[in-house]
Design the sequence.
């Protein structure tokens, strides 16, 4: 399970006392194209109705892309026509509700009976300049470089930390207040060597590349050297197993 915790603090000062919301993303179908159960809890509002995020290609985009789609479904539920998008906010007339700082973490919980958890990503969102409602965000992730967003606007009458995070996730991918199209499953064209099919590791997008390399090391299956593949070749069946089983 992934838990995204939102705090009204800096990353260094997070605690249960300043947590203002959290989002849980749990598998209901673990396959290369997976289904997730989504549950959002917001202080003052309680828990949302559980929602389903169906048919999402694992290991094919930033975890923050997955988080954004889970937030969109939980914040603006529509049983008949679920939408993975931002809802346009009406313009305010007398100022806006705002915050000067918000942060969030993505943590992976190994299982319901396990105390082990790993931090896979963080974000810090801060007011940009003196204008209330203008923000900038800095995202990190276990696979990939830090990403700084351009200044974006979130100026509602009623402030929602989860909604602000959703807008920041949209700004991470685009300077418009929209989510990008869903990513395609990361399945690069294989190469054939002596009748066997291999996946060139360097052709994998992040986070699949780093995740697959770590998974191969875990099982002592290093990629085979290849002049035209700087990160080596891995047997195609191993990559298929990774997509089906790696968490």
Sequence:
């Amino acid at each position: 399970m992934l838990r995204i915790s939102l705090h009204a603090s800096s990353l260094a000062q997070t605690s249960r006392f300043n947590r203002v919301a959290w989002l849980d993303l749990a598998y209901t179908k673990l396959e290369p194209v997976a289904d997730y159960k989504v549950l959002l809890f917001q202080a003052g509002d309680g828990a949302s109705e559980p929602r389903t995020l169906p048919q999402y290609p694992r290991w094919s985009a930033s975890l923050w892309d997955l988080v954004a789609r889970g937030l969109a479904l939980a914040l603006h539920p529509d049983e008949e026509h679920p939408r993975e998008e931002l809802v346009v906010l009406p313009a305010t007339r007398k100022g806006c509700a705002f915050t000067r700082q918000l942060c969030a973490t993505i943590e992976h919980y190994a299982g319901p009976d396990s105390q082990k958890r790993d931090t896979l990503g963080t974000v810090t969102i801060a007011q940009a300049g003196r204008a209330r409602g203008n923000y900038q965000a800095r995202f990190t992730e276990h696979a990939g470089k830090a990403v700084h967003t351009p200044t974006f606007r979130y100026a509602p009458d009623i402030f929602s930390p989860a909604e602000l995070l959703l807008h920041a996730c949209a700004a991470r991918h685009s300077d418009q207040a929209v989510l990008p199209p869903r990513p395609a499953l990361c399945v690069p064209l294989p190469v054939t060597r002596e009748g066997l099919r291999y996946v060139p590791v360097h052709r994998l997008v992040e986070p699949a590349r780093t995740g697959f390399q770590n998974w191969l090391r875990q099982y002592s299956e290093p990629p085979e050297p290849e002049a035209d593949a700087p990160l080596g070749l891995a047997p195609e069946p191993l990559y298929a197993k990774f997509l089906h089983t790696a968490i």
User: Anything to note?
Assistant: DSSP finds four helices and 14 strands in the chain. The helical segments are 63-75, 161-173, 208-218, 236-245.
